[in-house]
Amino acid sequence: IKNKEGLITASIGLIWIVYGYVSNDYEFDSYPNGSIFLLIGLIIMFGKYIWKKDNVKKNKNTKP
User: Fold this and answer.
1) What is the pLDDT of residues 9-63, one digit of tens each?
2) Residue 37 · residue 16 · CB < 8 Å
């Protein structure tokens, strides 16, 4: 993965979810804060790749 910001953000989200799970006596709760960080990290990781590929396709189709 070339996008380190997204990986770090997703890792923080996963750590936050695991911490909440362990501190809640191993009972699953929704953990919205960790879930939000995980979702943002995944969007950063894969969103930049998808949008970059989309822009490259648009640039190839235009004629000078």
Assistant:
1) 889 989 988 888 888 888 877 778 888 888 888 888 888 777 766 555 665 655 5
2) yes
Helix (H, G, I), strand (E, B) or coil at 21: helix
Domain limits, the chain:
4-57
> CA 19, CA 49: separation in Å to the nearest integer?
30
Contact present, 34 and 17 (Cβ < 8 Å): yes
The reported pTM is 0.64
Per the CB < 8 A criterion, the answer to whether 34 and 14 are in contact is: yes
Cα separation values, 63 from 7, 11, 30, 58, 60, Å: 37, 42, 50, 10, 8
